[in-house]
């Protein structure tokens, strides 16, 4: 699970015009910058975005506003960045699930990863963790897999959405182990974590960074990392 900051690609014609008018324009940035996070607040993507926004704001001397635009496994927020003016004032917190996996999972996505975006920089990677509600009668991965096979409906696990790396990891685990795991997609990892803590679902597959505080507090039980 890799996170990148990207911006709307600037066409060559726009670059040429910007060069000609450089002397008449204010130094960039002359107004607040919008950082679109295509998931709900509370997950590791959102928390990463807020850390980056704070750092960028201090570095650039201009406010960087985090704008959560969840839906369709990140496609909705990503598409909004494509539609924004290519002037450097709209950034996207992208990750491999949205930019690499989604175009192969959805019949149609409203963007072209290679054509519509320019990478600004990689900000980090995230290790995934399978965590459980503390009341689940299983403590190890083997016990979770055995429990899923013993229940008629198996065990449900929540993720940040269809096609994301947690979803792919969960499907691979089920295929390789024969476990009965039912995927429950959310609009962000934060919601999936909240429902696991509340007992609505027994398991969540998410980034370690988003779950570790709840594990330390005893609200989640870490089963395995991948």
Integer average pLDDT: 88
Shape summary: elongated
What share of the residues does DSSP label as strand, in percent? 25-35%
Low-confidence stretches: 10-24
Tally of individual helices = 9
Distance between the termini: 10 Å
The side-by-side strand order for the widest beta sheet comes to: 3-2-4-1-5
The rounded Rg comes to 20 Å
Share of helical residues: 40-55%
Query: Main β-sheet, in a few words?
Result: 5 strands, mixed
Q: Give the structural class.
A: alpha/beta
User: How many extended strands?
Assistant: 10
- Give me the strand/helix succession: EHEHEHEHHEEHEHEHEHE
Write up what this structure looks like.
The protein is of the alpha/beta class. Helix content is about 40%, strand content about 25%. It has nine helices and ten strands. The strands form two sheets. The chain has a five-stranded mixed β-sheet with strand order 3-2-4-1-5, sandwiched between helices. Strands 8-7-9-6-10 form a five-stranded mixed β-sheet, with helices on both faces. It is elongated and about 65 Å long. The model is unreliable at about 10-25 (pLDDT under 50).
Short description:
By secondary structure, the protein is an alpha/beta fold.
Would you spell out the secondary-structure blueprint of this structure?
Elements: E1 2-8, H1 12-20, E2 33-37, H2 44-60, E3 64-68, H3 75-83, E4 90-95, H4 96-105, H5 113-116, E5 117-125, E6 128-132, H6 141-150, E7 155-159, H7 165-177, E8 181-185, H8 189-198, E9 203-207, H9 208-216, E10 221-225
